Amino acid sequence: MADGFVINDTTYAGEAAGQFIVKAITGADTIKGGHCYVKDGIKKKFTIPRWDADYEDLIQDRAATPTSKGTMTVTGQTIVPADYMIYVEFNPRDFEDHWYATQLNPTLIDRALPVSVESVVVQEVMKRHTKFFNKIIWQGNTALTTIYKYFNGWVTRASASSSTNKVASPTTLSASNIQDEFLKGYNKIPEALRYDDDMKYFCSYGTYDFYATSQIAQTYKGIDTTQSGVKLFKGKKVIPIADFPADTYIIAKGLPDMGSNLWVGMNSVDDASLQLQKVQNNSELYFIKMLMKADVNFGWDEEIVYYGA
User: Fold this and answer.
1) Which of 40, 61, 244, 276 lies at a 20 to 30 A Cα distance from 238?
2) CB 35 within 8 A of CB 239
3) CA contacts within 13 A on the Cβ side of 119
4) How far is the C-alpha of 168 from the C-alpha of 163, rounded, in Å?
5) Digit-coded pLDDT (tens) for 42-52
6) Residue 62 — very low, low, confident or very high, per pLDDT cuts 50/70/90?
7) Which of 63-77, 80-94, 259-273 has the lowest mean pLDDT?
8) DSSP assignment of 177-229, as one string?
9) What is the torsional sign of CA 256, 258, 264, 265?
10) How far apart (Å, rounded) are the C-alpha atoms in residues 19 and 13?
11) pLDDT band at 13 (very low <50, low <70, confident <90, very high)
């Protein structure tokens, strides 16, 4: 395959599965775009290290024997990866009328999958998982009973936290009000971060479409109708995210390194595994099984701006 990864009729676990699953995870819009930091290798729980001090409080007059001045605060946010899985069975005979039919074993007694079919099936399942993962890291909620119940996503955490900077009186967003509502969020950005280029607006495709339409509709300095819109608001990148909730946006520092305020935690080597093999010896059915463990959190709630109900 193009990525050089070949799946054979065997059990993949440990490092090999970890590399494959991480590759699939990093295909998610949010992570692939470099908007969050993925912390791998979390055995059970990880504390996001936070160090803080008032820079003005540390300064004092020079003295021969100085007295300590200033306070350094060390705190942390925890990431506790939660379990979920994928398990699906299929019959290789389904490929008999497919263009892969010529690659199947001619003997029906042992109609094993050819390597190319195995690779395609696994990769397509992982692509669907990528879409699920991109949604749960934003909209996950442990109060739900659906498949999005495994951990709290960033939207859920931002809404529930008493420390995030919430925009008052959120409303239904539209092309006519989006710029005013974006400005309310901008004004909520902590002063120290207001001119940080890594602070980004995260919103739904629909919300971004409103923003692009509003740029075209401006009486003066509007953009050409052939353009898709400028993905900037007052110098901050506007990032449309698939399956992001409507009438909601988050402003956060999003980076692919530890300087990010958006963190994803997992343990691909020990807690994630991928299997593709026969259901049992006397069966023609195959199964794909993937065990996964993940969680998300903010580094600093105080540095998040939340707009939504």
Assistant:
1) 40
2) yes
3) 11
4) 14
5) 777 887 765 66
6) confident
7) 63-77
8) THHHHHHHHHHHS-GGGTT-TTEEEEEEHHHHHHHHHHHHT-SSSPPPTTS--
9) positive
10) 10
11) very low
3-state class of 97 per DSSP?
coil
- The structure tokens 């699953």 sit at 21
Q: How far is 133 from 85, CA to CA, in rounded Å? A: 12
Query: Is the model's pLDDT at 107 over the cut of 60?
Result: no
Give the CA count within 13 Å in the CB-facing half-sphere of 126.
25
Give the pLDDT score at 110.
41
Answer for the pair 49, 299: CB distance below 8 angstroms, yes or no: no
Q: Is the pLDDT of residue 254 over 90?
A: yes
Rounded CA separation 159/137 (Å): 14
- Place 152 in a pLDDT band, splitting at 50, 70 and 90: very high
Helices 178-188 and 205-216 meet at what angle, rounded to 10?
Answer: 110
Q: Hey, CA dihedral for 151, 155, 160, 163, is it positive or negative?
A: positive
Round to whole Å and give the CA distance between 282 and 81. 37
Looking at per-residue confidence, does 135 or 14 come out higher? 135
Query: Which pairing describes strands 273-278 and 10-12: parallel, antiparallel, or unpaired?
Result: antiparallel
Give the list of residues 6+ apart from residue 193 with CB closer than 8 angstroms, or none.
199, 253, 303
Q: Where are the alpha helices (DSSP H) in the chain?
A: 14-25, 29-32, 115-139, 154-160, 178-188, 205-216, 268-271
Q: Are 290 and 13 in contact (CB under 8 A)?
A: no
